[in-house]
Every structure is written in C-alpha cells, then in structure tokens.
Amino acid sequence: MRYVIIGAGAVGGVIGGRLADAGRDGVLVARGAHFEALRDHGLRLRVPEGELSLRLPVVDGPAGLGELRPDDVLVLAVKTQDSVAALQSWGPAPVQGGGTAAERLPLVCAQNGVEGQRLALRLFRRVYGVCVWLPSTYVEPGVVSAAGSPLTGILHLGRHPHGTDETARLIAADLEKSHFEAPVVADVARWQYAKLLSNLGNALEAVTGPVDSEEATALFRRVRAEGVAVLDAAGIAYASAEEQQAVRGDKVTLVPLDGAPRGGGSSWQSLTRGTGTIEADYLNGEIALLGRLHGVPTPLNELLQHLADSFARERRAPGSMPVAELVRLADEAVVNTG
Q1: Which of 9, 179, 273, 295 lies 20 to 30 Å (CA to CA) from residue 152?
Q2: Which pTM does this prediction carry?
Q3: Kindly report the CA angle at 66 between 28 and 117, in degrees rounded to 5?
C-alpha cells in the first residue's frame, strides 16, 4: 500500500515520516512554504533517537500525482476547518483502472474531534476514524517533531461509523512497524470522544499558555465537566480515564528533544504559525453544538471557542491573555447563562 498523507503537518508529517522510515511507500501533501521546504530539502523528523532526514515525493494536490494507484490509502490529516476543501479536491481524483478516489479508495481521518469523518462520509464510501494520541509539533516549514518514547503515539483505528475490516488491520500492521501502537477497534468513536474531552483544553492553552497553574487547571476541570455533561445528556459513550490509562500506561512518555521544544498543542501551534484559523469550532464548538441540541448550557466552551477564533482571526500571539482575566470572563459567562 502507498500512503498519501493529505496535510503533512504535526500529525500527518510524523505519521508519514515514521511510515517512510520503516520502509513503507508514501507521498506527502503540503502547501506554501511547507511544501517548498519538503520539496527542496526533504522532511526533517525530530524524534528521541535523533533527527531523521527523509526524502519522500511531495505534491500540493492530486494533479501532482496523476492517476492514483488502486492500493493507495488516503490519510486526511489537515485541521478539520480545512477538511471540506481537501475532500473536494481529492474525492474526484481518478484512480488507475477507472473510478475516483471517493468511490474506490480508503480514507483515514487522522484528526482531532469527530467532525472530519462525518464530512468525509458525504463523499467517500470507505471512511476510517483514528483516535490520535500523538504528541507532535509543527511550527517550522519542513520540520516536524514527536517527543514520545518508547512509542511515538497510539492510534486507535476503525471504520466510521463503526466496525473493522481487513484494510484497517493492514494499515494497523504498517503503523505498528513504525513506532506506533494501533489497536483496531469496532467503536473508534468512543475513543475519539474521550480524546475530545481532553482537547477541550487546547483553546485554553492557546489563549493563556500552558495549563500548569492551579488556576488554569481548575478552569480546565470546569470546561471538561461541561463536556462530560453534554456527552452524557446526548447518550454518547466515551472511554473512561481509567480505560485510557490502562491502554497507554507509560508507552508514550515525552522526552526533551534537542532543538525542538514542545511549546504547546495543535491550537497553540496554529496561533504560533499565524495561520488565521484554529480548530476550536470542532472541539469546544462540538460541545456547544451538542449542548444546544440536548438542552445543556455550555458557557465556558462557548467562551473558549469565541476567544480562540478571535485570537486566530486577529493573529494574536498564543498565551497573551492572563489566566486571571479568562477566569473572570468565565465566571461572568456562567452568571449570564444562569
């Protein structure tokens, strides 16, 4: 199988790089300065064993590949807000022997949240979801890093909306030869919703900086409690913290990387790169949506969604709002909702 990594950033770049280093066939898809750096200098993948320099084919869209191969696996690793454009670009791409990518090829959504695979299923017949437990960083064109050891990450994988098949098992086998653990599960959404609860802190980190003070940690607990209340009201199952810990254990422990400090998660990185967009609409915004559908107030998640969107749109620096100011705004939001 050949892996076409659509969005070779923090998650896609690490997955594509690890697969390539393990001898798997792959193509990276990127845009702008990142595309140029990958094309001209290759992928620099910083991991605990050192910096790997990898030369993979790089394109900025399906036209660069011509007809896709029947054994291609498309890995959608763009941020959710970029999914529709990517899906509309790759779905009609022709496949050798006839038909299109949307009709014939598997599409694996390696993204935060749950919306990307729902969008994909509108166009693609064979969609797979991944619960992405992969601490990784992309802030410099051509360079991605992953500090996890002894494993780079844990990637639960299954069909969307449910089930497993031989394709999932073949993909998982390749991942497990590439520094990942990749459990194939029939209920991948249950793991994704558990990860969603953790990702509700992404906007908090982006707005105020690391969630390491007592004040910030307490606020995150309140934000997550809203998420739990919403999922419970909606009847949506999610893996417990105990179940997640039993699977993960000490398999993905962050270690310092020379020249590659991990400043923050995916939303923090979006602000650092000044992309102008952020995925809060599909993280905190997912909780706000479910809250409205099921009659559960979500003032804290709505506040974080609004602030993160504003920071991205105005290209404000990450961490530029004091935690105390955010707590004040959060308390006001709760009072106004009540």
Answers
A1: 273
A2: 0.96
A3: 55
